[in-house]
What we know:
Elements: H1 3-18, H2 21-28, H3 34-55, H4 66-87, H5 93-100, H6 103-115, H7 121-141, H8 147-174, H9 176-198, H10 208-236, H11 238-241, H12 248-260, H13 266-284
Amino acid sequence: MERKTRGWMSGMVGVMIFAGSLPATRAAVAGFDPLFLTCARATLAALLGALLLAGRRQPLPNRQDVLPLALTALGVVVGFPLLTALALQHLTSAHAMVFVGLLPLCTALFAVLRGGERPRAAFWLFSLAGGGCVAGYALSTSHGGGLQDTLLMTAAVVVCGLGYAEGARLSRRLGGWQVISWALLAALPIMLPAALLTQPATFTLVPAAAWLGFLYVSLFSMLIGFIFWYHGLAQGGIAAVGQLQLLQPFFGLALAALLLHERISGAMLVVTLAAVVCVAGAKKYAS
Length: 287
């Protein structure tokens, strides 16, 4: 199996794992403060990442890796989890997913600015078409939230695109699971004390659904998903594999239908097919 194909397969697994992040976060903020949730999930994932690094005897990153690791941590360990948790106090998960459809554009933009990738013009046309298709569908069918929540989700997508691109660049040299593990450890000196300071006075009133959401975002969204995702971006190209994120809103909506009993319409299936076509076109013209 060629390298790019392996990259796309690994990236797809990552996207499917990330698709559960917004529904799980929505469930978690029903029982936890957004700041505590962000810090606690990063702390738990960092401890697991430290065990992985120690067990596999991984060398310390080089000095030139410090800034990219810091940017990765800023985007995917702190920025996206905190901003989405704040927004999902008021937004429905379906409404929040509109912004996930714009992640491929942000990831590709930072791949160009920071990674030196140069996709062809047709790539951008397919990316814009796919992002517009996803955004138009979600905006036309979702409700809830105001300007503040829109700004929070927009900022979340921007910093997440930065974190994806920076982490993917490092993954080519350090490896996918090593990058997210080091990024989590880089943030640990801030996240652990913040988690302790913001923890609830009692955990007895936290509903079971919030605990399940917390465990999902801590283990899968914060660590396991990134192992597959960064490996896929490094193998298949940041801009190209990043287009798989166009499918994430629809995986997420399917999960929301199962967990939150939301109805899946025929329009969703049509737009999903259109997004698949855009992903295929973007892949063809990515290099």
